[in-house]
Amino acid sequence: MVRQPDGCWAADVPEAGPGDEYRFHIVAGDKEFLRIDPYARRVTSSVGNAVIPRPMPRSKAPSFTPVPLNEMVIYELHIGTFGKKTTEPGPGNLEGAIERLRHLKELGVNAIEIMPINEFAGGYSWGYNPSLIFAVETEYGSPRTFKEFVDEAHKLGIAVIVDVVYNHFGPDDLDLWQFDGWNENGKGGIYFYNDWRAETPWGETRPDYGREEVRQYLCDNALMWIKEFGVDGLRWDATAFVRNVHGRDNDPNNDLPDGWMMMQWINRQIRKVRRSTFTIAEDLRGNPYLTKAPKDSGAGFSSQWDARFVTAIRAALCGPEDQSRNMDAVRDAVMHRYYLNAFERVIYTESHDEVANGKARVPEEVDPGKASSWAAKKKSCLGAAIVFTSPGIPMIFQGQEFLEDDWFHDQDPLDWSKKVEYPGIFRLYQDLIALRLNLHGSTRGLFGQEVSVHHINQDSKIIAYHRWDKGGPGDSVVVVANFSVQSQTDYLIGFPSEGEWIVRFNSDSRIYDQEFGDAGATTVHAKAPGQDGLPAKGALDIAPYSALALSQ
Q1: Distance of CA 396 to CAs 214, 225, 234, 311, 496, Å?
Q2: Are residues 303 and 345 in contact, defined by beta-carbon separation less than 8 angstroms?
Q3: Bridge-partner residues for 397, per DSSP?
Q4: Under a CB-based contact definition with an 8 Å cutoff, are residues 210 and 218 in contact?
Q5: Is residue 320 part of a domain?
Q6: Is 210 inside a domain boundary?
Q7: Taken in order 325, 422, 464, 469, is the CA torsion positive or negative?
Q8: How many CA atoms lie within 13 A of 410 on its CB side?
Q9: Number of domains in the chain
Q10: Structural domain harbouring 295
Q11: 49-82 tens-digit pLDDT
Protein backbone atom coordinates (compact mmCIF):
# COMPACT_ATOMS: atom_id res chain seq x y z
CA MET A 1 0.00 0.00 0.00
CA VAL A 2 1.16 3.54 -0.76
CA ARG A 3 0.69 6.56 1.45
CA GLN A 4 -1.56 9.15 -0.20
CA PRO A 5 -1.27 12.95 0.22
CA ASP A 6 -4.20 12.93 2.67
CA GLY A 7 -2.44 10.41 4.92
CA CYS A 8 -4.50 7.40 3.86
CA TRP A 9 -2.84 4.26 2.51
CA ALA A 10 -4.10 2.62 -0.68
CA ALA A 11 -3.38 -0.18 -3.12
CA ASP A 12 -5.14 -1.58 -6.19
CA VAL A 13 -5.57 -5.36 -6.26
CA PRO A 14 -7.06 -6.06 -9.72
CA GLU A 15 -7.75 -9.76 -9.12
CA ALA A 16 -9.78 -9.11 -5.95
CA GLY A 17 -13.55 -9.47 -6.26
CA PRO A 18 -16.81 -9.82 -4.32
CA GLY A 19 -16.69 -12.57 -1.73
CA ASP A 20 -12.91 -12.45 -1.33
CA GLU A 21 -11.68 -12.18 2.25
CA TYR A 22 -8.86 -9.86 3.27
CA ARG A 23 -7.05 -8.15 6.11
CA PHE A 24 -4.55 -5.30 6.37
CA HIS A 25 -0.95 -6.26 7.12
CA ILE A 26 0.59 -3.46 9.18
CA VAL A 27 4.34 -3.34 9.82
CA ALA A 28 5.33 -0.92 12.58
CA GLY A 29 9.02 -1.19 13.42
CA ASP A 30 9.65 -4.67 14.72
CA LYS A 31 5.92 -5.34 15.19
CA GLU A 32 3.42 -6.72 12.69
CA PHE A 33 -0.37 -6.76 12.84
CA LEU A 34 -3.14 -8.29 10.74
CA ARG A 35 -6.18 -6.01 11.07
CA ILE A 36 -9.74 -6.03 9.80
CA ASP A 37 -10.54 -3.08 7.52
CA PRO A 38 -12.26 -0.51 9.80
CA TYR A 39 -14.51 0.42 6.85
CA ALA A 40 -15.43 -3.20 6.03
CA ARG A 41 -19.07 -3.45 4.98
CA ARG A 42 -19.08 -7.18 5.62
CA VAL A 43 -17.00 -9.54 7.78
CA THR A 44 -16.93 -13.26 8.45
CA SER A 45 -17.31 -12.47 12.16
CA SER A 46 -16.23 -9.83 14.66
CA VAL A 47 -12.86 -11.65 14.93
CA GLY A 48 -12.71 -12.92 11.35
CA ASN A 49 -11.83 -11.34 8.04
CA ALA A 50 -13.20 -8.46 6.03
CA VAL A 51 -15.16 -9.54 2.95
CA ILE A 52 -15.44 -7.61 -0.31
CA PRO A 53 -19.21 -7.15 -0.68
CA ARG A 54 -21.20 -7.39 -3.86
CA PRO A 55 -22.27 -4.02 -5.25
CA MET A 56 -25.43 -2.74 -3.59
CA PRO A 57 -28.48 -3.14 -5.86
CA ARG A 58 -30.51 -0.14 -6.91
CA SER A 59 -33.55 0.47 -4.74
CA LYS A 60 -36.71 -1.24 -5.98
CA ALA A 61 -38.90 0.85 -3.70
CA PRO A 62 -40.67 3.95 -4.96
CA SER A 63 -39.29 7.32 -3.91
CA PHE A 64 -39.94 7.71 -0.19
CA THR A 65 -40.11 10.70 2.13
CA PRO A 66 -40.85 10.18 5.83
CA VAL A 67 -43.79 11.96 7.43
CA PRO A 68 -43.00 15.15 9.38
CA LEU A 69 -42.10 14.65 13.03
CA ASN A 70 -45.49 15.85 14.32
CA GLU A 71 -47.13 12.96 12.42
CA MET A 72 -44.60 10.27 13.32
CA VAL A 73 -45.30 7.11 15.34
CA ILE A 74 -42.19 5.03 16.15
CA TYR A 75 -41.91 1.29 16.83
CA GLU A 76 -38.61 0.26 18.43
CA LEU A 77 -37.44 -3.24 17.54
CA HIS A 78 -34.49 -5.59 17.99
CA ILE A 79 -33.71 -7.74 14.95
CA GLY A 80 -32.46 -10.68 17.03
CA THR A 81 -35.79 -11.09 18.85
CA PHE A 82 -38.29 -9.43 16.50
CA GLY A 83 -37.06 -11.38 13.47
CA LYS A 84 -36.75 -14.74 15.22
CA LYS A 85 -38.44 -17.72 13.59
CA THR A 86 -39.25 -20.26 16.29
CA THR A 87 -38.24 -23.19 14.09
CA GLU A 88 -34.72 -21.91 13.41
CA PRO A 89 -31.70 -21.93 15.76
CA GLY A 90 -29.76 -18.84 16.72
CA PRO A 91 -30.92 -15.24 16.89
CA GLY A 92 -33.52 -13.73 14.60
CA ASN A 93 -32.37 -12.15 11.37
CA LEU A 94 -33.27 -9.56 8.76
CA GLU A 95 -35.15 -12.05 6.59
CA GLY A 96 -37.40 -12.90 9.52
CA ALA A 97 -37.86 -9.21 10.29
CA ILE A 98 -38.88 -8.52 6.68
CA GLU A 99 -41.65 -11.09 7.05
CA ARG A 100 -42.93 -9.20 10.11
CA LEU A 101 -43.17 -5.80 8.39
CA ARG A 102 -46.77 -6.50 7.41
CA HIS A 103 -47.58 -6.72 11.12
CA LEU A 104 -46.27 -3.18 11.56
CA LYS A 105 -48.28 -1.96 8.59
CA GLU A 106 -51.39 -3.55 10.11
CA LEU A 107 -50.60 -1.90 13.44
CA GLY A 108 -50.35 1.49 11.74
CA VAL A 109 -46.91 2.78 12.73
CA ASN A 110 -45.04 4.87 10.17
CA ALA A 111 -41.47 4.63 11.51
CA ILE A 112 -39.35 1.85 12.98
CA GLU A 113 -36.25 2.32 15.08
CA ILE A 114 -33.84 -0.59 14.89
CA MET A 115 -31.49 -1.31 17.75
CA PRO A 116 -27.89 -1.38 16.44
CA ILE A 117 -27.19 -3.80 13.60
CA ASN A 118 -23.44 -3.10 13.41
CA GLU A 119 -21.12 -6.09 13.86
CA PHE A 120 -20.79 -6.96 17.55
CA ALA A 121 -19.11 -9.64 19.62
CA GLY A 122 -20.88 -13.01 19.55
CA GLY A 123 -24.29 -13.77 18.07
CA TYR A 124 -26.57 -12.41 20.78
CA SER A 125 -26.49 -8.77 21.86
CA TRP A 126 -28.54 -5.61 22.10
CA GLY A 127 -25.97 -4.19 19.66
CA TYR A 128 -24.59 -1.44 21.88
CA ASN A 129 -21.14 -3.06 21.92
CA PRO A 130 -19.98 -2.28 18.37
CA SER A 131 -16.91 -4.07 17.08
CA LEU A 132 -17.07 -2.83 13.47
CA ILE A 133 -19.50 0.01 12.85
CA PHE A 134 -19.60 -0.23 9.03
CA ALA A 135 -20.40 -3.96 8.87
CA VAL A 136 -23.90 -5.41 9.23
CA GLU A 137 -23.98 -8.00 12.04
CA THR A 138 -23.13 -11.37 10.47
CA GLU A 139 -25.86 -13.26 12.34
CA TYR A 140 -28.49 -10.81 11.06
CA GLY A 141 -27.62 -11.10 7.38
CA SER A 142 -25.80 -9.34 4.59
CA PRO A 143 -25.70 -5.64 3.65
CA ARG A 144 -27.92 -6.48 0.65
CA THR A 145 -30.51 -8.03 2.97
CA PHE A 146 -30.58 -4.92 5.11
CA LYS A 147 -31.03 -2.82 1.96
CA GLU A 148 -33.95 -5.10 1.07
CA PHE A 149 -35.37 -4.56 4.58
CA VAL A 150 -35.26 -0.78 4.13
CA ASP A 151 -36.84 -1.02 0.66
CA GLU A 152 -39.66 -3.26 1.89
CA ALA A 153 -40.37 -0.91 4.79
CA HIS A 154 -40.52 2.04 2.39
CA LYS A 155 -42.95 0.19 0.13
CA LEU A 156 -45.25 -0.05 3.15
CA GLY A 157 -44.88 3.64 3.97
CA ILE A 158 -42.62 3.02 6.99
CA ALA A 159 -39.49 5.09 7.66
CA VAL A 160 -36.38 3.35 9.01
CA ILE A 161 -34.26 4.74 11.85
CA VAL A 162 -30.96 3.06 12.77
CA ASP A 163 -29.31 3.22 16.18
CA VAL A 164 -25.67 4.32 16.03
CA VAL A 165 -23.18 4.06 18.89
CA TYR A 166 -20.48 6.74 18.83
CA ASN A 167 -19.99 7.20 22.60
CA HIS A 168 -17.77 4.10 22.89
CA PHE A 169 -16.66 1.07 20.88
CA GLY A 170 -16.57 -2.57 21.98
CA PRO A 171 -15.12 -3.27 24.46
CA ASP A 172 -14.95 -6.88 23.21
CA ASP A 173 -13.64 -8.13 19.82
CA LEU A 174 -12.31 -4.66 19.13
CA ASP A 175 -9.82 -4.84 16.26
CA LEU A 176 -9.46 -1.03 16.35
CA TRP A 177 -7.71 -1.30 19.73
CA GLN A 178 -4.05 -0.19 19.33
CA PHE A 179 -4.67 -0.58 15.61
CA ASP A 180 -1.11 0.12 14.41
CA GLY A 181 0.59 -0.74 17.71
CA TRP A 182 0.94 2.84 18.94
CA ASN A 183 -0.65 3.91 22.23
CA GLU A 184 -0.08 6.06 25.27
CA ASN A 185 -0.72 5.02 28.87
CA GLY A 186 -1.59 1.49 27.75
CA LYS A 187 -4.83 2.74 26.18
CA GLY A 188 -6.45 2.33 22.80
CA GLY A 189 -4.17 4.00 20.31
CA ILE A 190 -5.00 6.06 17.24
CA TYR A 191 -8.80 5.66 17.24
CA PHE A 192 -9.23 6.44 20.96
CA TYR A 193 -8.44 8.97 23.64
CA ASN A 194 -5.28 7.87 25.41
CA ASP A 195 -5.80 9.75 28.66
CA TRP A 196 -8.55 10.29 31.28
CA ARG A 197 -11.02 11.15 28.51
CA ALA A 198 -11.08 7.49 27.42
CA GLU A 199 -13.19 6.47 30.45
CA THR A 200 -16.82 5.44 29.83
CA PRO A 201 -19.24 3.22 31.78
CA TRP A 202 -18.51 0.52 29.17
CA GLY A 203 -14.71 0.58 29.23
CA GLU A 204 -11.93 2.99 28.27
CA THR A 205 -12.93 2.95 24.61
CA ARG A 206 -14.25 6.43 23.81
CA PRO A 207 -13.27 7.52 20.27
CA ASP A 208 -10.93 10.50 20.11
CA TYR A 209 -13.25 13.21 18.79
CA GLY A 210 -10.30 15.60 18.68
CA ARG A 211 -8.70 13.70 15.78
CA GLU A 212 -9.91 14.76 12.35
CA GLU A 213 -9.55 11.19 11.04
CA VAL A 214 -11.76 9.80 13.83
CA ARG A 215 -14.43 12.46 13.30
CA GLN A 216 -14.39 11.67 9.59
CA TYR A 217 -14.65 7.94 10.35
CA LEU A 218 -17.80 8.52 12.41
CA CYS A 219 -19.26 10.96 9.89
CA ASP A 220 -18.62 8.52 7.03
CA ASN A 221 -20.47 5.87 9.02
CA ALA A 222 -23.48 8.12 9.60
CA LEU A 223 -23.61 9.01 5.92
CA MET A 224 -23.24 5.36 4.88
CA TRP A 225 -26.55 4.40 6.46
CA ILE A 226 -28.27 7.24 4.63
CA LYS A 227 -26.56 7.14 1.24
CA GLU A 228 -25.95 3.41 0.76
CA PHE A 229 -28.90 1.89 2.60
CA GLY A 230 -31.43 4.70 2.26
CA VAL A 231 -32.36 4.94 5.95
CA ASP A 232 -34.40 7.97 6.97
CA GLY A 233 -32.99 8.79 10.38
CA LEU A 234 -30.37 7.98 13.00
CA ARG A 235 -30.85 7.61 16.72
CA TRP A 236 -27.61 8.38 18.59
CA ASP A 237 -27.02 6.28 21.69
CA ALA A 238 -26.01 7.98 24.96
CA THR A 239 -25.03 11.38 23.58
CA ALA A 240 -24.41 12.61 27.13
CA PHE A 241 -21.20 10.54 27.00
CA VAL A 242 -20.17 12.08 23.69
CA ARG A 243 -20.28 15.57 25.20
CA ASN A 244 -19.05 14.86 28.75
CA VAL A 245 -16.72 12.18 30.12
CA HIS A 246 -19.17 11.26 32.88
CA GLY A 247 -22.38 12.04 30.97
CA ARG A 248 -23.22 15.10 33.06
CA ASP A 249 -24.58 18.58 32.58
CA ASN A 250 -22.98 21.59 34.29
CA ASP A 251 -19.63 19.82 34.60
CA PRO A 252 -17.21 21.96 32.55
CA ASN A 253 -14.08 20.25 33.85
CA ASN A 254 -15.17 17.00 32.22
CA ASP A 255 -16.87 18.37 29.11
CA LEU A 256 -15.75 17.19 25.67
CA PRO A 257 -16.05 20.22 23.37
CA ASP A 258 -14.72 18.13 20.48
CA GLY A 259 -17.61 15.73 20.93
CA TRP A 260 -20.19 18.53 20.90
CA MET A 261 -18.68 20.08 17.77
CA MET A 262 -18.58 16.67 16.11
CA MET A 263 -22.31 16.16 16.71
CA GLN A 264 -23.02 19.59 15.22
CA TRP A 265 -20.86 18.84 12.19
CA ILE A 266 -22.30 15.39 11.47
CA ASN A 267 -25.87 16.66 11.82
CA ARG A 268 -25.08 19.40 9.30
CA GLN A 269 -23.45 16.93 6.90
CA ILE A 270 -26.44 14.61 7.10
CA ARG A 271 -28.84 17.39 6.12
CA LYS A 272 -26.63 18.31 3.18
CA VAL A 273 -26.97 14.78 1.84
CA ARG A 274 -30.74 14.57 2.31
CA ARG A 275 -32.74 17.37 3.86
CA SER A 276 -35.55 15.11 5.11
CA THR A 277 -33.17 12.98 7.21
CA PHE A 278 -33.74 13.40 10.94
CA THR A 279 -31.61 12.55 13.95
CA ILE A 280 -32.72 11.65 17.47
CA ALA A 281 -30.54 11.92 20.57
CA GLU A 282 -30.78 9.58 23.52
CA ASP A 283 -29.31 12.02 26.03
CA LEU A 284 -31.76 11.66 28.96
CA ARG A 285 -30.39 14.71 30.80
CA GLY A 286 -33.12 17.17 29.82
CA ASN A 287 -30.68 19.46 28.01
CA PRO A 288 -32.58 21.66 25.52
CA TYR A 289 -29.43 22.47 23.54
CA LEU A 290 -29.40 18.98 22.02
CA THR A 291 -32.30 19.98 19.77
CA LYS A 292 -31.33 23.60 19.15
CA ALA A 293 -29.75 24.47 15.81
CA PRO A 294 -25.94 24.70 15.60
CA LYS A 295 -26.29 28.41 14.76
CA ASP A 296 -27.85 28.78 18.23
CA SER A 297 -25.03 26.75 19.86
CA GLY A 298 -27.17 23.60 19.77
CA ALA A 299 -26.13 20.11 18.69
CA GLY A 300 -28.63 20.09 15.83
CA PHE A 301 -30.70 17.00 16.61
CA SER A 302 -34.29 16.87 15.38
CA SER A 303 -35.64 15.36 18.61
CA GLN A 304 -34.54 13.55 21.77
CA TRP A 305 -35.84 10.88 24.10
CA ASP A 306 -37.68 12.40 27.08
CA ALA A 307 -36.62 10.71 30.32
CA ARG A 308 -38.83 13.04 32.35
CA PHE A 309 -41.97 11.77 30.62
CA VAL A 310 -41.30 8.04 31.00
CA THR A 311 -40.17 8.38 34.63
CA ALA A 312 -43.29 10.28 35.74
CA ILE A 313 -45.82 8.23 33.77
CA ARG A 314 -44.38 4.85 34.78
CA ALA A 315 -44.37 5.97 38.44
CA ALA A 316 -48.04 6.94 38.14
CA LEU A 317 -48.91 3.62 36.51
CA CYS A 318 -46.79 1.15 38.42
CA GLY A 319 -47.03 2.38 42.01
CA PRO A 320 -49.07 -0.09 44.09
CA GLU A 321 -51.11 2.53 45.96
CA ASP A 322 -53.39 5.07 44.29
CA GLN A 323 -52.61 7.69 46.91
CA SER A 324 -48.96 7.66 45.84
CA ARG A 325 -49.79 8.79 42.30
CA ASN A 326 -48.63 12.35 41.76
CA MET A 327 -50.96 14.07 39.31
CA ASP A 328 -48.80 17.19 39.27
CA ALA A 329 -45.94 15.03 37.98
CA VAL A 330 -48.27 13.60 35.30
CA ARG A 331 -49.26 17.15 34.33
CA ASP A 332 -45.62 18.19 34.08
CA ALA A 333 -44.84 15.15 31.93
CA VAL A 334 -47.67 15.97 29.54
CA MET A 335 -46.71 19.65 29.34
CA HIS A 336 -42.93 19.32 29.17
CA ARG A 337 -41.00 20.48 26.14
CA TYR A 338 -37.32 21.19 25.61
CA TYR A 339 -37.66 24.41 23.68
CA LEU A 340 -40.43 25.79 21.47
CA ASN A 341 -41.31 22.71 19.44
CA ALA A 342 -43.40 20.08 21.25
CA PHE A 343 -42.13 17.40 18.86
CA GLU A 344 -38.51 17.82 19.87
CA ARG A 345 -39.14 14.94 22.27
CA VAL A 346 -39.87 11.23 21.89
CA ILE A 347 -42.28 9.94 24.55
CA TYR A 348 -42.89 6.37 25.67
CA THR A 349 -43.56 4.07 28.62
CA GLU A 350 -41.41 1.22 27.29
CA SER A 351 -38.04 1.16 25.52
CA HIS A 352 -35.21 -1.37 25.55
CA ASP A 353 -33.79 0.39 28.63
CA GLU A 354 -37.14 0.68 30.42
CA VAL A 355 -37.92 -3.05 30.18
CA ALA A 356 -34.53 -4.48 31.23
CA ASN A 357 -31.63 -3.75 33.59
CA GLY A 358 -33.71 -4.58 36.66
CA LYS A 359 -36.97 -3.24 35.22
CA ALA A 360 -39.73 -5.00 33.30
CA ARG A 361 -42.57 -4.20 30.96
CA VAL A 362 -45.39 -2.09 32.37
CA PRO A 363 -47.90 -4.98 32.84
CA GLU A 364 -45.21 -6.99 34.64
CA GLU A 365 -44.27 -4.04 36.87
CA VAL A 366 -47.94 -3.45 37.72
CA ASP A 367 -48.65 -7.06 38.64
CA PRO A 368 -45.46 -9.17 38.81
CA GLY A 369 -46.04 -12.69 37.51
CA LYS A 370 -49.59 -11.78 36.44
CA ALA A 371 -49.09 -9.45 33.49
CA SER A 372 -52.50 -10.39 32.04
CA SER A 373 -54.48 -9.45 35.16
CA TRP A 374 -57.22 -6.83 35.01
CA ALA A 375 -55.06 -4.21 36.74
CA ALA A 376 -52.05 -4.91 34.51
CA LYS A 377 -54.12 -4.59 31.34
CA LYS A 378 -55.98 -1.50 32.51
CA LYS A 379 -52.89 0.42 33.59
CA SER A 380 -50.81 -0.49 30.56
CA CYS A 381 -53.66 0.63 28.28
CA LEU A 382 -53.99 3.86 30.27
CA GLY A 383 -50.28 4.50 29.80
CA ALA A 384 -50.59 3.92 26.05
CA ALA A 385 -53.43 6.44 25.88
CA ILE A 386 -51.31 9.09 27.61
CA VAL A 387 -48.40 8.42 25.21
CA PHE A 388 -50.53 8.77 22.08
CA THR A 389 -52.43 11.88 23.21
CA SER A 390 -49.59 13.92 24.73
CA PRO A 391 -47.53 16.34 22.62
CA GLY A 392 -44.40 14.64 21.35
CA ILE A 393 -43.42 11.77 19.06
CA PRO A 394 -45.02 8.59 20.47
CA MET A 395 -42.93 5.42 20.57
CA ILE A 396 -43.75 1.86 21.61
CA PHE A 397 -41.40 -1.07 22.14
CA GLN A 398 -41.84 -4.34 20.28
CA GLY A 399 -44.57 -6.56 21.71
CA GLN A 400 -46.17 -3.79 23.72
CA GLU A 401 -49.07 -3.94 21.29
CA PHE A 402 -50.04 -7.47 22.37
CA LEU A 403 -49.23 -7.37 26.09
CA GLU A 404 -45.77 -8.93 25.96
CA ASP A 405 -44.71 -9.65 29.54
CA ASP A 406 -41.58 -10.27 31.62
CA TRP A 407 -38.44 -8.26 30.76
CA PHE A 408 -36.46 -7.85 27.56
CA HIS A 409 -33.30 -9.81 26.83
CA ASP A 410 -31.58 -10.69 23.59
CA GLN A 411 -32.29 -14.43 23.67
CA ASP A 412 -36.03 -14.15 24.38
CA PRO A 413 -37.91 -13.77 21.07
CA LEU A 414 -41.30 -12.12 20.92
CA ASP A 415 -44.19 -14.40 21.77
CA TRP A 416 -46.32 -13.88 18.66
CA SER A 417 -49.06 -16.14 20.05
CA LYS A 418 -50.02 -13.23 22.30
CA LYS A 419 -51.25 -11.31 19.26
CA VAL A 420 -53.87 -14.06 18.87
CA GLU A 421 -54.47 -14.35 22.61
CA TYR A 422 -55.02 -10.61 23.13
CA PRO A 423 -56.52 -9.30 19.87
CA GLY A 424 -58.33 -6.53 21.75
CA ILE A 425 -55.07 -5.06 23.06
CA PHE A 426 -53.74 -5.02 19.51
CA ARG A 427 -56.97 -3.31 18.43
CA LEU A 428 -56.49 -0.71 21.18
CA TYR A 429 -53.06 0.21 19.81
CA GLN A 430 -54.44 0.33 16.27
CA ASP A 431 -57.18 2.69 17.43
CA LEU A 432 -54.78 4.90 19.38
CA ILE A 433 -52.47 5.18 16.36
CA ALA A 434 -55.44 6.03 14.13
CA LEU A 435 -56.50 8.65 16.70
CA ARG A 436 -52.98 10.09 16.83
CA LEU A 437 -52.70 10.21 13.02
CA ASN A 438 -56.17 11.75 12.60
CA LEU A 439 -57.16 8.96 10.21
CA HIS A 440 -60.86 9.65 10.79
CA GLY A 441 -60.58 13.43 10.45
CA SER A 442 -61.74 14.21 13.99
CA THR A 443 -58.54 14.56 16.05
CA ARG A 444 -56.37 16.99 14.10
CA GLY A 445 -55.28 18.63 17.36
CA LEU A 446 -52.99 15.70 18.18
CA PHE A 447 -50.75 16.95 15.35
CA GLY A 448 -50.65 20.39 16.95
CA GLN A 449 -48.26 22.20 19.24
CA GLU A 450 -50.82 23.33 21.79
CA VAL A 451 -51.66 21.67 25.10
CA SER A 452 -53.30 22.89 28.30
CA VAL A 453 -53.81 20.76 31.39
CA HIS A 454 -56.94 22.43 32.69
CA HIS A 455 -58.14 19.96 35.34
CA ILE A 456 -56.24 18.14 38.13
CA ASN A 457 -57.87 16.33 41.03
CA GLN A 458 -55.25 14.96 43.42
CA ASP A 459 -57.84 13.24 45.60
CA SER A 460 -59.69 11.41 42.82
CA LYS A 461 -56.53 11.09 40.64
CA ILE A 462 -58.22 12.62 37.61
CA ILE A 463 -56.45 14.75 35.01
CA ALA A 464 -57.83 16.41 31.87
CA TYR A 465 -56.04 18.23 29.09
CA HIS A 466 -56.89 19.98 25.86
CA ARG A 467 -54.86 19.40 22.68
CA TRP A 468 -55.29 21.55 19.58
CA ASP A 469 -53.68 22.83 16.41
CA LYS A 470 -56.01 25.53 15.07
CA GLY A 471 -58.86 24.62 17.43
CA GLY A 472 -62.51 23.95 16.78
CA PRO A 473 -64.53 20.93 15.55
CA GLY A 474 -62.41 18.08 14.21
CA ASP A 475 -59.35 19.70 15.77
CA SER A 476 -59.67 20.27 19.53
CA VAL A 477 -59.27 17.06 21.55
CA VAL A 478 -60.06 16.76 25.25
CA VAL A 479 -58.41 13.88 27.09
CA VAL A 480 -59.63 12.73 30.53
CA ALA A 481 -57.62 10.14 32.48
CA ASN A 482 -58.45 8.34 35.73
CA PHE A 483 -55.40 7.03 37.62
CA SER A 484 -57.55 5.56 40.42
CA VAL A 485 -59.30 2.24 41.02
CA GLN A 486 -62.47 4.24 41.79
CA SER A 487 -64.81 4.93 38.89
CA GLN A 488 -66.39 8.36 38.55
CA THR A 489 -70.02 9.10 37.60
CA ASP A 490 -71.34 12.44 36.35
CA TYR A 491 -67.88 13.89 36.81
CA LEU A 492 -67.68 17.53 35.71
CA ILE A 493 -64.79 18.92 33.68
CA GLY A 494 -64.32 21.98 31.51
CA PHE A 495 -64.61 21.95 27.71
CA PRO A 496 -63.30 24.52 25.19
CA SER A 497 -66.77 25.07 23.67
CA GLU A 498 -70.41 24.24 24.13
CA GLY A 499 -72.21 21.50 22.25
CA GLU A 500 -71.93 17.77 21.76
CA TRP A 501 -68.53 16.16 22.35
CA ILE A 502 -68.14 12.64 20.94
CA VAL A 503 -66.08 10.00 22.72
CA ARG A 504 -63.58 8.97 20.02
CA PHE A 505 -61.67 6.59 22.31
CA ASN A 506 -62.50 4.85 25.59
CA SER A 507 -59.81 2.53 26.94
CA ASP A 508 -62.47 0.77 29.08
CA SER A 509 -64.31 -0.53 26.00
CA ARG A 510 -65.00 -4.26 25.92
CA ILE A 511 -63.78 -4.40 22.33
CA TYR A 512 -60.32 -4.21 23.90
CA ASP A 513 -60.89 -6.83 26.60
CA GLN A 514 -63.93 -8.69 27.93
CA GLU A 515 -62.83 -7.93 31.50
CA PHE A 516 -63.20 -4.19 30.88
CA GLY A 517 -66.36 -2.41 31.98
CA ASP A 518 -67.55 -0.48 28.92
CA ALA A 519 -68.38 2.42 31.24
CA GLY A 520 -69.61 5.78 30.07
CA ALA A 521 -71.72 7.29 27.35
CA THR A 522 -70.58 7.88 23.77
CA THR A 523 -71.35 11.60 23.90
CA VAL A 524 -71.04 14.42 26.41
CA HIS A 525 -73.09 17.62 26.25
CA ALA A 526 -71.09 20.67 27.28
CA LYS A 527 -72.80 23.92 28.18
CA ALA A 528 -72.26 27.21 29.97
CA PRO A 529 -71.38 28.29 32.56
CA GLY A 530 -67.83 27.06 32.19
CA GLN A 531 -65.38 25.31 34.49
CA ASP A 532 -61.63 24.89 34.82
CA GLY A 533 -61.06 28.21 33.08
CA LEU A 534 -62.92 27.07 29.95
CA PRO A 535 -66.24 28.43 28.66
CA ALA A 536 -68.25 25.22 29.03
CA LYS A 537 -68.52 22.16 31.23
CA GLY A 538 -69.88 18.66 30.82
CA ALA A 539 -70.55 15.58 32.95
CA LEU A 540 -69.08 12.20 32.07
CA ASP A 541 -68.53 8.75 33.50
CA ILE A 542 -65.03 7.32 33.55
CA ALA A 543 -63.97 3.83 34.60
CA PRO A 544 -61.03 2.91 36.86
CA TYR A 545 -57.58 3.30 35.30
CA SER A 546 -59.07 4.54 32.05
CA ALA A 547 -58.74 7.33 29.52
CA LEU A 548 -61.26 9.05 27.26
CA ALA A 549 -60.54 11.19 24.20
CA LEU A 550 -63.32 13.44 22.95
CA SER A 551 -63.76 15.86 20.06
CA GLN A 552 -66.58 17.67 18.25
Answers
A1: 34, 23, 17, 15, 30
A2: yes
A3: 76
A4: no
A5: yes
A6: no
A7: positive
A8: 19
A9: 3
A10: 69-170+234-436
A11: 999 999 888 877 778 999 999 999 999 999 999 9
